[in-house]
Amino acid sequence: MRRLHLKMDGVLVYSDYKRLKYRMVYLVMAGALVAVATLMLFPAAWLFLSSFKGPVELYRTPFTLLPEELRLSKIAEVWRMMAFGRYVLNSFWVVAGSIVCAVLFNGLLAYGVSVIRPWGHQVVTALVIGSLMIPPILNMGPLFQSIVGLGLIDSYLPLWLVFGANPFYFLIFKSYFDTLPRALFEAAQLDGCTNLQMFLRIVLPLSMPITSVVAIFAANASWSDFLLPFLVLRSDSAKTVMVKIYSLQSALGTLQGFGPDKMLMLLLLAIIPPTLMFLLFQRQITHSVALTGLKDF
Predict the structure, then answer these.
(1) Per-residue pLDDT at 84 exceeds 90
(2) Which is higher by pLDDT, 69 or 108?
(3) pLDDT at 65 > cutoff 70
(4) Closest-CA residue to 81 (of 276, 271, 274, 261)
(5) Please, which pLDDT band fits residue 279 given cuts at 50, 70 and 90?
(6) Of 196, 187, 213, 199, which Cα lies nearest the Cα of 291?
């Protein structure tokens, strides 16, 4: 309520909140948002608390939400038991390649369509937008056959290319490049810059907010995806976090010392990186949404 006096635009301004009717509406909306946020965060909170429970405590009746002891050493214990560091590094390797491909491929294509505008650029834009109409699962069969035919099984290269090539990322870049002043490119051409130099020296530095958002989306998609890494990565040493967790489900009850409580801890470790990434870069995400609506500089 203290910051309401700063609200000077929108449907309701600060003076409106001085009236009891509007204040009650504001409180009801704030309460509803808190309730929805609590409902959305409850599964993550349950996973966090349950992962520190023991096997007996996990199935105890009556159910208790809080564990008897918050033993942080269990994280290191599970990490060492499953040699989880190897699979985390594999996932980070997939994420790094996906980010590079997402920024370069989609950024260059959007730059060519939006700034260079060669003959037929409208057809390219229409084809990319039309690809959004095709469900991704329909592409999985032909895509996997191509990967097998090229001999790329157990390689991270197809994962980088698939996670990097995304029509949604292209549209994000294009909508932002369309707002850049043309005078910048005309001045750069007079100075003798090539198209590639303009992209690297002018467009990318001006597009860091949008580039960071595309990188975040690509990182989250590549970290969380399961189906394609499951099909492509066959050897255990190349598996990502999600594929390894799936393969460990069959080991429940057979692998000594590995029970449901350890599986919950692995799930907790798997969601920590994307959660931290969102918390660190949420300002860039919201800031980019505002920038995509700008038409003038």
Answers:
(1) no
(2) 108
(3) yes
(4) 261
(5) confident
(6) 213
Looking at every residue in the chain, the average pLDDT score rounds to 83
In contact, 144 and 231? CB cutoff 8 Å: yes
CA distances from 3 to 13, 20, 25, 262 (A): 12, 17, 17, 44
What is the rounded distance in angstroms from the CA atom of residue 78 to the CA atom of residue 212? 33
Give the integer Cα–Cα distance in Å for 73 and 52. Answer: 10
Instruction: Quote the Cα angle for 144-220-239, to 5°.
Output: 50
pLDDT score recorded for residue 118: 87
Structure tokens at 68: 């008897």
pLDDT recorded at residue 255: 67
Model confidence over 226-235: pLDDT tens digits?
999 999 998 8
What domains can you pick out in the chain, each with its CATH number? 2-72 (no CATH), 75-291 (1.10.3720.10)
- Give the closest residue to 115 by CA, choosing from 171, 186, 168: 186
Q: Return the residue matching tokens 């489900």.
A: 249
Residue 292 Ramachandran class (φ > 0 left, ψ -120 to 50 alpha, else beta): alpha
Q: What is the pLDDT of residue 295?
A: 44
Helix 260-291 vs helix 241-248: angle between axes, to the nearest 10 degrees?
150
Say if residues 260 and 58 touch (Cβ distance below 8 Å). Answer: yes
> Residue 191 has what DSSP assignment?
T
